[in-house]
Design a protein that fits this description.
Layout (H helix, E strand, L loop, with lengths): L2 E5 L16 H13 L3 E3 L28 H6 L21 H19 L4 H10 L2 H14 L11 H4 L3 H10 L1 H27 L3 E6 L8 H5 L14 E5 L9 E6 L3 H6 L3 H13 L2 E4 L3 H4 E6 L9 E4 L3 H10 L4 E4 L7 H10 L3 E4 L21 E4 L8 H7 L2 H11 L7 H11 L4 E5 H4 L29 H13 L6
Parallel strand pairs: 1-2, 1-12, 2-3, 3-6, 6-9, 10-11, 11-12
Antiparallel strand pairs: 4-5, 4-7, 7-8
Helix pairs in contact: 1-19, 5-8, 11-13
Amino acid sequence: MRQSGILMHITSLPSPGGIGDLGREAYSFADFLHRSGMRIWQVLPIGPTGYGESPYQSPSAFAGNPLLISLPLLREEGLLSFEDREIYVPADPEKVDYEAVRKNKMALLRRAWQQSGARLEAEIAAFRQAQPWAEDYALYSALKELFGGEMWSRWQKKGIRNRRIWSRWIYRHKLQEEIGFHLFCQYLFRRQWMALKKYCNERDISLFGDMPIYVAEDSADTWTHPEVFQLDRRRLPVRVAGVPPDYFSEDGQLWGNPLYRWDYLKRKHFFWWVDRMRGMAELYDIVRVDHFIGFANYYSIPYGAKNARTGEWIDGPGRALFEELRKAVPGLRIVAEDLGEVNDKVRDLIRWTGYPGMRVMCFGFDGDETNPHFPANYIEHMVLYTGTHDNDTIRGWADKASPKALKFAEKTLDFKGPEKAAEAFTEACLRSPAETAVLPMQDVLGLGGEARMNLPGTTGGNWLWRMKPGAASEKVAERLLRLNRESGRAAE
């Protein structure tokens, strides 16, 4: 079935309060997708953000980001009282100021906890029972605050650092109020997310999530299940993740995430991954698994290395993991992010799973017509993007492209000048043979490099872009609907 969608992270919605959230603007965007003939809404990871506000460095593989909770919806439900003037108003409505947003929103969420926590006691208890990770995440979050934000492996109290039973009992009692607050926030997030998912599904829109393969070193996951990761007796990583040197980086990329103990996980029927994917199946209709390459073979770098040059490739879990997942989580729709060093092991694993891979149009104009990202090489069983969150916008790409690359793209896609690039790429993506075509909202709107979401290898200035109010207009919806109908991706 031919279908299309838009990549638009929740934080980028023009919601009140300085950050996109799960409130009315999210429902309006779902309506816009429906009117456009789009059947997919793809988002970035929705967990709490980590270092540099990256959603790919979250302190939890299971938790939701409290900053995405809609305060106006809480007020409508009678769970929070506040005046409109108490909501943060950003100086720049097209950028997220995370520090200001966090200060304002968390204070109001604490007020909601004081006003309505007792009222929701039964619902929170049921949520805690249904989500076994939540108790540990809430305790971890409360401890992080108690210890001044220190990484858990550096907590001075050895008993709680190593999760001794008696120590956990003491701190659960001591931090009961704070633990309750974090559970309350997770309950509210899940409640609002599932309501939005229901609304989307009723309009024939699938929510397409994004799951990083690795977790952050400082996370509730590594603290709760250190046995799952390559950690030493001091709970420090032995080897960490990254990618080797290539044309774009002479030192490679040192991500620093702890690697998995795949041999141990295999003996335990991959229990942690089964739990994680069950969680993904609850939240999403489709899941993009980031760095799928790492399941076939992963790049292992010694902890403490200054760069990624000293790493080595190690065999991953391969088919064994996905055999277990198919039994435990049947029907889960997965897209394999297979960008990077794709070798025969990776290709064989993707072929065996049957998962569609990805192609990115702006990678296709290096002059090599055998490049898998070049339009002549697109196949049906794939997800095609004009660009991703890690690329410049198409207009930004065209503005910065070499004359040779731009000319090649202009000739291939029949347009002239950078100002026409986004429109040409958008139309070519939708008219391609790919079964699924996904457009970043920035490319739909023809925005330049100022709207880029992330520049890999940099910290600061990323994950900030927000859409202007009214940008997802009826005119834009009508254009997309026409293109979707012409390309057989929407019914006449």
